[in-house]
Amino acid sequence: MASTRTKNRNAFLCMDCKVDTGKTSEYYMLIDKVWYAVCDFERGMLCIDCIETRLGRKLTKKDFTECFLNKLTFGAKSAKLVNRLGRIA
Predict the structure, then answer these.
(1) How many domains is the chain built from?
(2) Cα 77 to the chain's mean position, in Å?
(3) What residue numbers bound the domain in which 54 lies?
(4) What 8-state DSSP symbol labels residue 17?
(5) Helix pair 48-55, 79-86: axis angle to 10 deg
């Protein structure tokens, strides 16, 4: 039986490549229009590379919601995520 810690970490696994998005500091929220363009369900995680592959383009600042998770001053963020949060289309 999986431990509670393992179950909690599984929630952070990218649905495509299985990388732990929590450990790679790629935890973010997208606007619904962008998320639902590539994913049929509300919950789940995708790393930056996999969401961009599904989307067929790089993410831009406009793709992210205005929530605390996406603030550059909140928590650790990968260099790739920082780049996308500041990237203007």
Answers:
(1) 1
(2) 10
(3) 4-86
(4) T
(5) 50
